[in-house]
Amino acid sequence: MALAKSTHLEILRLLKQNQGAFVSGVVLAEKVSISRPAVWKHIKRLKALGYEVQSHPRLGYMLVEVPDSLEREEIFPNLTTSWLARSYHYLPTTGSTNDHGLVLAAGGAPHGSLVVAEEQTKGRGRLKRQWLSSAGRGIYLSILLRDLLPIRVAPQSSFVGSLALVKMLRKEFDIPASIKWPNDVLINGRKVAGILTETQSDQDFSRFIVLGMGINVNHTKEELSGPFRYPATSIAIETGYAVKRQEVLLRFLEGFERDYERFIKNGLAALLPEIEQYTTMIGKTVTVVFGEREITGKACGVSDEGALLLLGEEGSRESVWAGDVVRIEGGF
Asked: Residues 177-209: pLDDT tens digits?
């Protein structure tokens, strides 16, 4: 299987090197040390994945167009990470990438395994809220993390995801993305991504974490105009043009690996300056709902443990460990 995959990727690489020009079947066969009939089988596989390949009886094969797919063929050869996504699981459609990640975790999949889907039929966020997962529009992924972390520390990994995405959007697209505590990413007050972490733990330590994320990439305004809890947006809406999902995924994975390694080495405190820099609710009056309780106060920071620090009207201070920010002074 590994050899077949390697041959498949090598043929695609050769076609990409000569995109727009024909490469003879003889040359392809010689380069990858297979027969010409075997080359044709790989070409048919590429066509089935959405690659537009023209065939000519004398000239060979020409790659005309590459699909905007998150298939392994488009991502794996361009990965620059050391351990993240080196075990790559692509699904055209699934109920939930987190559900699939939990199954992989229980089956012994390695640290850094990535599940990515073109579509989710049962995508979910925090508090079991539905997440719109239109086919071919967004990035729906789950990352398996196996570092042994104290139970109170494991949920802090969600900050790594939001911080990595915010920094990537700002650097690559010049988009003023921000973190909405505890696990959302906003652009101009509209939600572009959400994170859901699910953990299996022993008495004191996590056995593994599955960190799921849904990113709105090429969704249109019409698709995001439904009755959502918070106003939503996408990268394409904010930039004014459709973007390559492959590049969004690759750049995000690079940033996540860097920030996660900082988190594991030095704790959340190492990321706090950046987290607070990009958490635009800091300094504003917010209302947080958790359980049946509602609290309003001035957000003055995030603690080393990930709690939102609130200053009440009468000078009281409170650390909020979990909750839903339902209002921000001036709106989202």
From this structure: 999 988 899 999 899 999 999 999 888 899 999
Q: pLDDT band at 330, cuts 50/70/90?
A: low
Domain 285-328 grouped into CATH 3.40.640.10:
no
Residue 316 in tokens: 């009281």
d(CA 194, CA 203): 28
Please tell me whether residue 324 adopts helix, strand or coil conformation: strand
Partners of 191 in the β-ladder: 186, 232
Cis peptide before 182 (omega within 30 of 0): yes
Q: Which of 114-123, 154-163, 226-235 has the highest mean pLDDT?
A: 154-163
- Residue boundaries of the structural domains of the chain: 2-65, 72-278, 285-328
Q: Which CATH superfamily is domain 72-278 in?
A: Bira Bifunctional Protein; Domain 2 (3.30.930.10)
Sign, CA dihedral 239-245-248-251, equals negative
Query: Whose CA is closest to 84, among 216, 207, 278, 264?
Result: 264
